[in-house]
Amino acid sequence: MTPLIGVLALQGAFREHIDAFKRLGVGTREIRALRDIAGIDALAIPGGESTTIGKLLTDTGLMPATREKIASGLPVFGTCAGMILLCEEIEDSSQPRLGSLKAKVRRNAFGSQVDSFEENLLIPELGDPPFPAVFIRAPFITGIGDEARVLATVNKDGENYIAAVRQDNILTTAFHPELTADDRFHKYFLKMIGNSAKRTT
């Protein structure tokens, strides 16, 4: 059975996620209100403005309901701002967040919009060729808990930074897979959803 993917559509690059899932033949539903999350099999949280998305999650009542669903095992894929919102701790910020991922994140870690860059990343979980990662005002993870594992790092100015993490049903990237034609991360997420469904049946 094909899963139904909820795509948080409050702000940011949600249409690009929808297009990626469409290319893979998967149905989606835009999540804008509390009623929209009933019956979805997974959730994608796009890049955008994490403070704005966090405020809208709170204002719509989606924040506690989404947090509860993730805690109950709902697979979730957060990119850039989505990563920030999923992390338990955001450096120097008290902004609203889901806090489901046992990790600490730094916002705009590589600089402002003009410091955006692309990097081909070797990601063992995805295999060859390297993944074309697009970093736009990107965060990076500065610490993770024992439950989480690093999927990818990026080398910038001679330093390695954590750029993708998975913790059980949670997948996050500091970059924007939805802004490329390479759908391997979305395929990887669909595999996560399938494995989650098998465990709960």
Keywords:
Rossmann fold; 7-stranded mixed sheet; 3-stranded mixed sheet; 32% strand; globular
CATH class: Alpha Beta
Write down the CATH topology.
Rossmann fold
Percent helix: 25-40%
Distance linking N and C termini = 13 Å
Could you name the CATH homologous superfamily?
Answer: Class I glutamine amidotransferase (GATase) domain
Which residues form runs of ≥5 with pLDDT under 50?
A: none
How much of the sequence lies in strands comes to 25-35%
> Which strand order do you get reading across the main beta sheet?
2-1-3-4-12-11-10
CATH-derived architecture: 3-Layer(aba) Sandwich
Q: Mean pLDDT, as a whole number?
A: 93
Structural domains: how many: 1
Briefly note the structural class of the backbone.
alpha/beta
Q: What is the radius of gyration computed over CA atoms, rounded to a whole number of angstroms?
A: 15 Å
Number of helices: 5
Give, in order, the helices and strands: EHEEHHEHEEEEEEEEH
The coarse overall form would be globular
For the secondary structure, the number of strands is 12
| Biggest sheet record | 7 strands, mixed
Mind sketching the topology for me?
Layout: E1 4-8, H1 14-23, E2 27-31, E3 42-45, H2 50-59, H3 62-71, E4 76-79, H4 81-86, E5 87-90, E6 101-106, E7 117-121, E8 131-135, E9 140-144, E10 149-156, E11 159-167, E12 170-173, H5 184-200
Parallel strand pairs: 1-2, 1-3, 3-4, 4-12, 5-6
Antiparallel strand pairs: 6-9, 7-8, 10-11, 11-12
